[in-house]
Amino acid sequence: MLTDSESALARAVLVHGPISRTALAERLALSPASLTRLAKPFVDRGVFVERPHILDGLVGRPVTPLDVASEWGRFAGVKLTGDRAYAVLTDARADVLSQADRALDATDPEGVVALIVELVRGLVAEATGDAPLRAAGVSVGGTVRAGRVEFAPFLAWTDVDLANLVSARLGVPVTVENDVVALTEAEHWFGKGRGIPGFSLITVGAGIGHGLVVDDRVVRTTAGVDLVGHVPVSAAGPICPLGHRGCAQMLTTASVLAAFTRSLGRPVAAREALVLARAGDETVVPIVSALAEALGNLLALVAGLTQQSVVVLAGEGIDLAAAAEERVRAAITAARDPRADPVTLHVDDGGFTAWARGAAAVAIQAAVDRIDLRARTSR
């Protein structure tokens, strides 16, 4: 296990590298001698590598940046939905090297585990280079605790020891996490929220998710479900299955497509809905406007309640929001007191790839926690 100082150093190099020792020392409030002492075991164990000299822009002298060694390892991430598995293989910074997805032929745990293993092994077999698969992560909608899926509504699972089941087949440590928490961690360390000490994450797709970072840490709860999905966002919105008028459920993919279907009098698929929205089709303009206003209201409400003026919007269902992004931003402004700090909105349009990357990110974080500088090799 790393000490607090070692852990802070590992995170700083991982998130901000390649980074000069001077910048590292300033970021971590360490003396040059202390930094050298802390960094040496990481270099000796092959976790860090010294990059070629560059000129310090301040004084014009050469410096040697520290970086995470590419040979340290690769990481797999798998996002599970109710009917599909999305997998990525990444480097230590969660940059996606390759990806694949497959339909779930069945949702029983054994069948899903077999598919996860098949997807990961396939990505590893196709990879180039000698970096080993160091760890894997799996994310799922629902309640997750210590690697066990206590409740996953989209898969109809209760009490599934998923981490151990997958780890036993893959032969590497496996981290299982709630999908919104995992995506929040990925945005915090490697994505749109990188370097931002506090922000909210709102995800739009099959459900509505909310992640929160405060004081540079992801806030974790035991709920894992139904955090903002039924917050009222439109007085004139539709009634959700639980009887709520105009709650955030109106933004889910199923609700949006139902609205398009009612308006056009025929079934509408997601791709066609997006084409119509982007084209400004007069039949769907009122729907898109109502959705944009509702989403803007939700984002403004979340920013106000959490006191975090930065919001990251992500998820596989945000394409319609992106098509009406100006309206969303206008709705946020209209819903805020003019004296309040403006909301900074960042949009991650990575879709399901972003979700899978989130699973890889929590595997990377866990791998950092497992680094043992006192052993003969780092694990």
From TrEMBL:
Pfam families: ROK. InterPro entries: ATPase_NBD (IPR043129), ROK (IPR000600), WH-like_DNA-bd_sf (IPR036388), WH_DNA-bd_sf (IPR036390). SUPFAM superfamilies: Actin-like ATPase domain, Winged helix' DNA-binding domain. Belongs to the ROK (NagC/XylR) family. This is ROK family transcriptional regulator.
